């Protein structure tokens, strides 16, 4: 069970890393998308951080649902519903099976895939989230999980986008890192730094 203090630290770490990398996310999204990913993510995680006290006072599962709801309302674009689904499903799953984090993460990533009608290998955030879910299931260390996430981001460079706005570019999407994959890895690293 994640404590209230850990939840608050987690929210602060997530918003801090998104803010610190907002310009980088915007640059990545400008290359193969519409250049709004940094601003969208910052707006969403700033909004979550603005309610850090109220959210972290809730039980873990309810706090995760509250983060998901806030992200859906504030991030916008394609990422809002997807990151919202990730956190909402984590909260729902932990309500049903407290403390089964690997299963909750796996189901949450599956829910993101269903929401985005996407799959692993299509140059999206799923290219990071699935390897991370597998690493968590395999009980890898935090450092290994973070390394898996960053390697997975690098692997999106050579992929052609199949889903999302970048897919309109076809082969021209090859050679660029996916911004959603990058933001997912940043969130993974922030979580690993707190828990
Ligand atoms: Mg965009």
Brief characterization of the structure:
By secondary structure, the chain is mostly helical.
Which helices and strands appear, and what pairs or packs with what?
Elements: H1 4-20, H2 22-32, H3 37-50, H4 52-56, H5 60-74, H6 79-96, H7 101-115, H8 126-137, H9 142-155, H10 179-194
Helix pairs in contact: 1-3, 1-10, 2-3, 2-10, 3-5, 5-6, 6-7, 7-8, 8-9, 8-10, 9-10
Bound molecules: magnesium ion.
Q: Which architecture per CATH?
A: Alpha Horseshoe
CATH homologous superfamily placement = DhaL domain
The total beta strand count reads 0
**Percent of residues in β-strands:** under 5%
User: What is the domain tally?
Assistant: 1
- Share of helical residues: over 70%
Mean pLDDT over the full residue set: 96
Instruction: State the shape.
Output: globular
Structural class: mainly alpha
Task: Give an overview of the whole structure.
- The chain has 195 residues and is mainly alpha-helical.
- The protein has a single domain, classed as Serine Threonine Protein Phosphatase 5, Tetratricopeptide repeat, CATH 1.25.40.340.
- Helices cover 70% and strands 0% of the residues.
- The chain has ten helices and no strands.
- Helix 2 packs antiparallel against helix 10, helix 5 packs antiparallel against helix 6 and helix 8 packs parallel to helix 10.
- The radius of gyration is 15 Å and the shape is globular.
- The termini are close together.
- The model has no long low-confidence stretch (mean pLDDT 96).
- Magnesium ion (MG) binds next to loops.
- Magnesium ion binds next to loops.
């Amino acid at each position: 069970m994640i404590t209230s203090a850990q939840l608050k630290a987690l929210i602060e770490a997530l918003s801090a890393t998104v803010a610190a990398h907002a310009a980088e996310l915007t640059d990545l999204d400008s290359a193969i998308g519409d250049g709004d990913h940094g601003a969208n993510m910052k707006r969403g995680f700033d909004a979550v951080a603005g309610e850090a006290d109220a959210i972290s006072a809730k039980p873990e599962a309810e706090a995760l649902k509250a983060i998901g709801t806030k992200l859906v309302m504030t991030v916008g674009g394609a990422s809002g519903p997807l990151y919202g689904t990730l956190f909402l499903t984590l909260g729902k799953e932990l309500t049903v099976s407290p403390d089964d984090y690997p299963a909750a993460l796996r189901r949450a990533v599956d829910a993101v895939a269903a929401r985005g009608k996407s799959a692993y290998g299509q140059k999206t955030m799923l290219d990071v989230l699935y390897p991370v879910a597998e690493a968590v299931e395999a009980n890898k260390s935090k450092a290994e999980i973070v390394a898996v996430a960053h390697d997975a981001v690098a692997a999106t460079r050579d992929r052609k986008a199949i889903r999302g706005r970048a897919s309109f570019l076809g082969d021209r999407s090859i050679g660029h890192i996916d911004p959603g994959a990058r933001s997912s890895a940043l969130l993974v690293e922030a979580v690993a730094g707190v828990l």
